[in-house]
């Protein structure tokens, strides 16, 4: 069953939301709190270790009702079922979308279970020091070589769960800029380092160029046969892996039904597994599966990914707010925003709908942000007093892992203070208009009991599903990424011009002019 192909603007709910928006345009959320003393409870959802407060948003019970009606009219329920059942919902690539199957232990595909066993055995051999480098020393460092989905998820998780690290140094080489590879290699010892080349296709120029440079560096310092112990691959393309010189037993499989930006749950997460250990990795998968079940079974009115996605549709398509900020009050989550930027914007940054038509409504919200409190001292001025309106997610963790209570108290106080200040504002004082805070700025707070592998898994899955719901409503194919192809092919032509010192292949006059300056 393919995804339904419903133009959201043709639904009754969409039209009703347009009318409702005219009633809501001037509504002040402070008044809604005054009118309804139970608003904080009415507009919050508790689930496991999560408490999600959406009460500071520009919504009323009627808004919620109409947004849920929209979800029904675009057949969200059947879209969710189609995804979980492994239908080929990624039609432009003729693929199923089953990252959720990587974390479903009650119904696991044999090849997934086998892959996990291989990851378990491998990471345990590193931790119990039976897997050794070519001189017999145990491995103490892992370098992940990959880009996009083969980098951002693993780096984000390794950073977030550093408190669970088993004493393994983890580095990431992603950018083609030689600084990335050179600076990393200065920090590692070839005798004790494992290089994991992660590329679903094993054709990505940045990754392959970096991997070859690393291999040459390694062979220069060791010998050719040592490559077998120190180079590992994760890919769907065993032929290219073998051509690179990595042994079949050191190759971890992945599958075309796992999209790159949703692949950290597969062997793409091998660096995570090496860093935090298999048990923690499995716990993270189970945390994500918990959110999958919540998403698949909870009524939409109590469904966290659905609630957040529909809120985002409300702001994007009716208020015309173009961006969303995500502010984790957790230094451990300092890589979450770049990870989500790929997950969200590579998925929904599109303008052709599932009927092949150009859409006449806004899609793909722009996601940005940074950790609190740093962000407060950088761009919060604009959130508080600027002319742009930016719905913001505050992610707050109740209990710290570090135990520095004074720090944590200040951190949490700041998180709560910011969402309150953005809503409540501060009236003008005569003669000092610049001290005015208009308030009524929409925020959502996601409070998580503790940043554990389980809760991190749930949090990531939450945003994955939010992204999918938005794509369903916008009538998009969220799981392809054709938009990254053009730049790659243009770069090929320019690289040819650079290598052959021949500008005649360059068509664009501006490019040609810049090219001449580069060559000087
Ligand atoms: O940027 C495009 C993209 O295809 C991403 O979707 C993907 O995560 C990344 O490149 C890396 O691809 P691969 O894992 O095949 O090297």
Query: Which superfamily, in CATH terms, is the homologous superfamily of the largest domain?
Result: Glucose-6-phosphate isomerase like protein, domain 1
**Domain module count:** 3
Number of strands: 11
CATH architecture of the largest domain: 3-Layer(aba) Sandwich
Please summarize the sheet with the most strands: 6 strands, mixed
Helix content: 40-55%
pLDDT < 50 stretches: none
Strand content: 5-15%
How many helices? The count is 20
Hetero ligands: 6-O-phosphono-beta-D-fructofuranose
Overall mean pLDDT stands at 97
Describe the structure.
The protein folds into 3 domains: 8-91 and 298-479, Glucose-6-phosphate isomerase like protein, domain 1 (Rossmann fold); 104-283, Glucose-6-phosphate isomerase like protein, domain 1 (Rossmann fold, 3-Layer(aba) Sandwich); 487-517, no CATH class. Helix content is 46%, strand content 11%. It is built from 20 helices and 11 strands. It has helices at residues 12-24, 29-35, 39-42, 61-73, 76-84, 110-127, 152-160, 178-185, 205-221, 227-230, 238-244, 270-276, 278-297, 304-319, 336-348, 380-385, 405-424, 453-473, 485-500, 509-519, and strands spanning 44-47, 50-53, 141-145, 169-173, 193-198, 231-235, 251-253, 323-329, 366-368, 392-399, 443-450. A 6-stranded mixed β-sheet has the order 1-2-11-10-8-9, with helices on both faces. Strands 4-3-5-6-7 form a 5-stranded parallel β-sheet, sandwiched between helices. Helix 7 links the parallel strand 3 and strand 4. The model has no long low-confidence stretch (mean pLDDT 97). The structure holds 6-O-phosphono-beta-D-fructofuranose. 6-O-phosphono-beta-D-fructofuranose binds at residues 146-150, 199-201, 204, 207, 260-261, 346, 481, 484. It is an enzyme of class 5 (isomerase).
């Amino acid at each position: 069953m393919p995804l339904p192909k419903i133009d959201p603007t043709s639904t009754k709910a969409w039209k009703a939301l347009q009318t409702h928006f005219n009633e809501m345009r001037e509504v002040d959320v402070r008044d809604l709190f005054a009118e309804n003393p139970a608003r904080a409870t009415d507009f919050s959802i508790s689930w496991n270790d999560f408490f999600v407060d959406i009460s500071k948003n520009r919504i009323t019970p009627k808004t919620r009702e109409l947004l849920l009606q929209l979800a029904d009219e675009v057949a969200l329920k059947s879209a969710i079922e189609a995804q979980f059942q492994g239908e080929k919902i990624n039609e432009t690539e003729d693929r199923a979308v089953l990252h959720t199957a990587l974390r479903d232990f009650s119904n696991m595909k044999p090849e997934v279970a086998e892959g996990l066993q291989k990851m378990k055995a491998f990471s345990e051999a590193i931790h119990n020091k039976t897997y050794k480098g070519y001189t017999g020393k145990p491995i103490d460092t892992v370098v992940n070589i990959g880009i996009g989905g083969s980098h951002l998820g693993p780096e984000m998780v390794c950073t977030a769960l550093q408190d669970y690290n088993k004493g393994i140094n983890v580095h990431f080489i992603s950018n083609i800029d030689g600084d990335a590879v050179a600076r990393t290699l200065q920090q590692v010892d070839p005798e004790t380092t494992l290089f994991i080349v992660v590329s679903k296709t094993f054709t990505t120029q940045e990754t392959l160029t970096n991997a070859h440079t690393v291999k040459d560096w390694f062979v220069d310092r060791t010998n050719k046969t040592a490559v077998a112990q120190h180079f590992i691959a994760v890919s769907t393309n065993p032929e290219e892996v073998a051509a690179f010189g990595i042994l079949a037993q050191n190759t971890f499989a992945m599958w075309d039904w796992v999209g790159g930006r949703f692949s950290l749950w597969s062997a793409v997460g091998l660096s995570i597994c090496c860093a935090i250990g298999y048990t923690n990795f499995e716990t993270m998968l189970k945390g994500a599966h918990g959110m999958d079940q919540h998403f698949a079974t909870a009524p939409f009115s109590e469904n966290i990914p659905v609630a957040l996605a529909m809120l985002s549709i409300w702001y994007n398509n009716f208020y015309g707010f173009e961006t969303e900020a995500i502010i984790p009050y957790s230094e451990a989550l300092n890589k979450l925003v770049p990870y989500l930027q790929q997950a969200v914007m590579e998925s929904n940054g599109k303008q052709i709908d599932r009927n092949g038509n150009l859409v006449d409504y806004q899609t793909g919200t722009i996601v940005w942000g940074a950790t609190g409190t740093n962000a407060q001292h950088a761009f919060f001025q604009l959130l508080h007093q600027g002319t742009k309106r930016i719905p913001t997610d505050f992610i707050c963790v109740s209990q710290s892992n570090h135990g520095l209570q004074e720090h944590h108290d200040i951190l949490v106080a700041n998180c709560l203070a910011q969402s309150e200040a953005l809503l409540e504002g501060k009236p003008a004082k005569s003669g000092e208009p610049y001290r005015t805070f208009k308030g009524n700025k929409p925020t959502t707070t996601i409070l998580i009991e503790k940043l554990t592998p389980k809760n991190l898994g749930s949090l990531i899955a939450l945003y994955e599903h939010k992204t999918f719901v938005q794509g369903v409503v916008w009538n998009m194919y969220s799981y392809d990424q054709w938009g990254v192809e053009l730049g790659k092919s243009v770069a090929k032509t320019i690289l040819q011009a650079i290598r052959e010192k021949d500008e005649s292949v360059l068509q664009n006059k501006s490019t040609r002019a810049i090219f001449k300056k580069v060559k000087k």
